[in-house]
Q: What sequence folds into this?
């Protein structure tokens, strides 16, 4: 199974222009200073492009942290957890 968390690290570094960010399953918007609505859209676009998945609006609204995003990506990719 892919290590989604590891693949997300450079995406977060690029979107937030900060190589010091260490993404964990618990990471959420409150933990990253520049994570606002615009950067959220850029993050979703980058994740969509990288993994080749599409998200429904309702799917994204309920996510509480990166761990839940990872679960959703695994689901979209058809990975077994």
A:
């Amino acid at each position: 199974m892919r290590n989604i968390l590891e693949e997300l690290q450079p995406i977060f570094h690029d979107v937030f222009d900060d190589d010091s960010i260490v993404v964990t399953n618990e990471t959420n918007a409150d933990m990253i200073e520049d994570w606002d609505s615009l950067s959220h859209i850029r993050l979703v676009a980058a994740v969509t492009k990288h993994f080749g998945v599409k998200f429904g609006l309702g799917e994204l609204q309920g996510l509480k942290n990166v761990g839940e995003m990872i679960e959703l990506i695994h689901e979209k990719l058809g990975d077994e957890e």
Summary: The helical segments are 4-16, 37-51, 57-61, 66-77.
